[in-house]
Amino acid sequence: MRFEEALASPGLGAIAEIKRRSPSLGELRPDADPARLAADYERAGAAAVSVLVDERFGGSWDDLRAARASSRVPLLAKGFFSTEEHLRTAKESGADAVLLLLRDLDDDQARTLLGIAADLGLDTLVEAHDADELGRALALDARVLGVNARDLATFAIDRAAQLELVARIPEDRVAIAESGIHTRAQGAAAELAGADAILVGSALMQAPDPAAKLADLLRRPLVKVCGLTRAEDVAAAAEAGADLAGFILARESPRRAEAVLDVPDTLLAVAVWVGETGESAAQLDQLYARKGDHRGRDAVLLREGEQVGRVVDLPWQQDDPLHLSRAAAIEGRVMLAGGLDATNVANAIRAVRPWAVDASSRLEVEPGIKDHGKVRAYVEAAAAHGRVA
Which of 374, 379, 330, 377 minimizes the C-alpha distance to 351? Predict the structure, then answer.
């Protein structure tokens, strides 16, 4: 499978990176074995593997050759390429694609290299850092576009700016969010902005088990703790490893929060509404229809007013023996809600394979006040037993 085709596959993909050091972080994994890592990444579900071949990152062309010998996934040669010789060496060393940095290339150079790559049978990842470079990439008709959240001059990360640019990439192109992704929630934020894949390097190379870290970023469902009203409960959810923090802003709810509270950047905030949405600091909105004086059964998940998923819930204060089978039959991103806690979330995940799970009332001491032990047990159960094989 070609590089572009692999990244365009349904769901969030990942380009897993091999690099021994980083200019911003220093030594990451000096003894990294490219052959072993590439094979491990492939088993963990990587759509492609990126290999740094530049000595400033501790890399070499031999690293690319070793990765090629041990894996079948598409390989991206990553370096500062500006000549035909660079691209020919990449092809001869086993690359399926090469990185082109618009920061270092003018349009004529980039156009020439795109043509050479096509003649060699190489795909390209054309990387942009700002709106001007993204506009140039689109004008060059680049098929695979990367948006780097890291300023290569200052090394500062700006995820918000990255997501804004990712959202501008047309659907007929392949969009890659690069750099600064360390958690499942950060990967989901890129996915919901329109990224087809994430490129992850430092987070993997710093992890005790890079392949296990990759699987966690990709495979397990997102875990949401809802009905939060206190900062200490938000902190408990974050410490437990939750990905989504839910704040109910519907007036009639006994779990109503006065506002969306601050959340660490390991979490995405979700504002929960009934009837209509309002203004909040949340990255996502969860909107239920109103049915009499309470919520309807299901909800839609919105990002900046656009639907990005569906919440499949139980009827108000009722059970449904067909709840899980009903949820499993729904295509697309499904957040499974309704009566979940540590005792049943693993079975629910196995039955439905949802994009996310959502729990609230069964994690409480009283409405709006969380039991931190129950929160921790629920998150651990969802994460440990919910990874798709």
Answer: 330
